[in-house]
Amino acid sequence: MIHSATQQDIISALQWYIDHGVSDCVLNDPINRFNIVPEVPKSAMISAISDIASKQLQENIQTFLGKSDAYDEAVKLAKSANSLEELAKAIIDFDGIAIKKTASNMVFADGNPKSEIMVIGEAPGAEEDRRGKPFIGASGRLLDKILSYIDLSRKSGNPEKSVYISNILNWRPPGNRTPSSAEIEVSLPFIERHIQLIEPKIIILCGGVAAKSLLGSEYSISRLRKKWHDYKPRTQAINSGNISIPAIATYHPSYLLRTPIQKKLVWEDMLILQKRLGFSVK
Length: 282
Ligand code: URA
Hints:
The chain has about 280 residues and is α/β, with parallel strands linked by helices. About 45% of the residues lie in helices and about 10% in strands. It folds into 2 domains: about 5-65, no CATH class; about 70-275, Uracil-DNA glycosylase-like domain (Uracil-DNA Glycosylase, subunit E), CATH 3.40.470.10. The chain contains 11 helices and 6 strands. It has a 6-stranded mixed beta sheet, with helices on both faces. Bound molecules: uracil. Uracil binds near residues 123, 135, 139 and 254.
């Protein structure tokens, strides 16, 4: 005899399916999920696509219309600069980097040019772009604080206790996006000449972009930090006299602002640095 299912029967049957791992209803006909368009708001999709397209376009333009011409020009200008003033002028005169047009100011350096320690970050942010100085926004304030714990300051007149600060890129990438490889490539001769003119005894590399670009490494910052590297200029024309400078890489302060739990790792790096500098921690 067939009897109609009660609500309790249906619930028991569903529970039986769930207990056996059946969690999705399927239809009689298969669905081709490769053809399903994700439900992303149109405006978000357009902006994501245009970000990718403009980055790609920029890389393509530089590949097809002479990336090497821009690079050669950067090397020529950087090499011929014999002082910080001449280098700043060379960077301003160089037209091979498109973000120069969207930036408000060229961001060159801050701190004591006689310092034995050079700090190198990625690229200027909004505040730096407005005021023409590196690391003066929220991440710069955190950087100053971190350095103060090992008795270093950009304001100190003492070459052993001061720092000199610059970035891989001298112009702000729009919207603070990560610099493209083409932008890094044409900026490298300038920062390498900058290092050569300052002649620091120690380099601190803040974040993955600075560390990978100057050490010529594909490793992530988590693998590059916590140890000493020998920085050697990668721009052949600038590598006169076999320069080799001890460099330590650490997390970028803007990453620490987003992920404060990692501050302890930067502290480890600062202790390694402090040991080499040979003065006591505050
Ligand atoms: N982040 C950097 O890498 N450099 C700056 O100057 C500011 C923020």
